[in-house]
Design goal:
seven-stranded parallel sheet, 22 strands, globular, binds adenosine-5'-diphosphate, binds magnesium ion
Amino acid sequence: MEISQPLEELDWIPRPKIIALRRLGIITAEHLLTHFPRRHEDRHQFPQFPRDESDQAICLSGEVVKTSLRRFGGWKKIFEATLQEPNANALSQPLVCRWFNLHYVQKMIATGQQLVVFGRPKLRGKRLCMDHPEFEVIEDDEERSIHLRRITPIYPATEGLSQRVLRSIIYRLLQELDTEPIEPLLPKSLKNGDRGEAIRAIHFPETWESLRNARDHLVLSEFFAMQMLIAARRTESHARVSAAHGRGGHLMQRFFCSLPFDLTNAQKKVIAEVRWDMESTFPMNRLLQGDVGSGKTVVAIAAILLAAEAGYQAAFMAPTQILAEQHYSVLRRWLEPLGLKLSIRTAARQEESFLPLAEGDENADVIIGTHALLYEKISFSNLGLVVIDEQHKFGVAQRGRLTSREPAPDVLVMTATPIPRTITMTVYGDLDVSMLDEMPQGRGKIITALRDSSKLGEVLSFLRTQLEAGRQLYIVYPLIEESEKLDAKAASAEYERWRERLHPYSCALLHGRIPGPEKQQTMERFRQGETKALISTTVIEVGVDVPNATVILIENAERFGLAQLHQLRGRIGRGKHKSYCILLSSEPTSEAAAKLAVLEKTNDGFEVAEADWELRGPGDLLGTAQSGLPALKIGDLRKDAPLMRRARISAMSIFEMDPRLEWPENKRFRELIVEKQGRTFSNVS
Ligand code: ADP
Ligand code: MG
């Protein structure tokens, strides 16, 4: 039998099972053999029943000596099966397995049966219980050896197929399969063992070590396929028609000289990387990562000046109106003295029409804007550079709208949302990455503290000392639906309360429903220091830069995600003064407390991101749908990061040497990408 054989052609698999498998998309032997176990149980020998409870799930086996069904609360039912361990003696304690309201379980279990159970033993009164354990009834037949006395695979639950049946089918498939001709999916440089062997061992490993090796092999294959796909995309985008959009560097030098500070080494390094891309004729596709406050705007301005000197226009897109306006005023300050013309486009400006529109754009060197840049007809006469700030606020498709035009502009996307490194290698794997991994000198420290809401009094007197010292504050509320009238009302009520609390210092209110120009004026007064405290929703989350603001108080902090809290905290610590982030929360759950404790511990965005990832556990963090990458079947982005790195290096070097995959030894990878992933590439197929 061959691996590509349809299961239908195998007469020993009963029809109903074939149909059940088909519902899961399992049609061929290969599909079934890559239906990988979720975990394994060591069933060589079962331990004695424990006497104490444990948080760790354990695997036990015993005989059912009693079953019972009890009712409680009217219609609810508990089914109990009492197990006795083998070779029970006077000291043995039975184990009670309990299932609540699971009708089917009671039909499957009867006295006298041998069960294997997997779960957490807990003491309930004097009894040792396991609630809702996974279980398997052991039958005394010739197949026993498949299920017992070995490291036994446990598969993802499948409707209409028991573990036992699935395991038996896979066992027999492996016996009949000729693994010799199974083609390895890995290049020589990554090869670790044999694919056929790995497929055997992932199901029925002889030892835990051989299981680990098999898994490594299969994860590496999966990651390699993914990285080949990414490398192909990258190669494709590099091949687009473009031009050199950077030249000279005189304007850029003049800008650096006019800055009141020296560039950090990280900024110099990143600017050199950007410049190299812009001076070459392939289109730049670069992701600039830098924690909040690391000085990304300077890098963006450098890129804009390189484009301007080469005679190209730049578009600068920001996710909020406040941020677009801030960039507009910062960029005007630096760029107008150098002779550049700037224009701005936001929906609010449009409505209020306080700026002449369309005419200005065509001869502007830089057009700054929000999403409005995407959806309006803007006549760029000679667009050479697109900068996207805080790119996580834009979807991939939105980014595409600006960047997919022909000829291809250079693209610089900037993000302050720390992204765990493995994700950068995948979701953003087709972009080149630059890192601002150094903060500018002379930044005041940020201290983060979690306080119970009942301590507001103490917090308040602390706020007043800061105000007396001349500093400014942000007070932030977790209004989730910015668009709802109700939230705006709540913010207004809070605003009144804060005005009393902070009297006589002047306060201002900021939220999404305030009309554009007013928002703008409020922000400007805060920037100028006229207003001392800004009571706000998360509209200030990204990018806002007011160095004299040293305190951010976040109410109901537990309602925000870690990444968002870190962003909010990034509003302070931008000047030379010591800054304070106060997280208010009333009686947070232990989960929420753990989350907030991360922020107390570290200011490093990457540590926050990794912790966030850990706390949230697995899940579609990848946003695979958004990235258009196939979902992972066996690899774990977090656990297997080193394997991802190896796969990436290998895939990149293959494309570097042989971009069209024409070498004989690379031909099979072309199939791997084009067929397996159902994608075609103009330069590959
Ligand atoms: P972000 O990376 O969060 O977008 P910004 O570009 O807004 O950060 O920069 C934050 C602040 O740091 C700004 O006030 C900016 O002028 C200042 N800044 C940028 N680079 C430096 C530097 N090398 N030394 C000192 N201050 C800097
Ligand atoms: Mg910024």
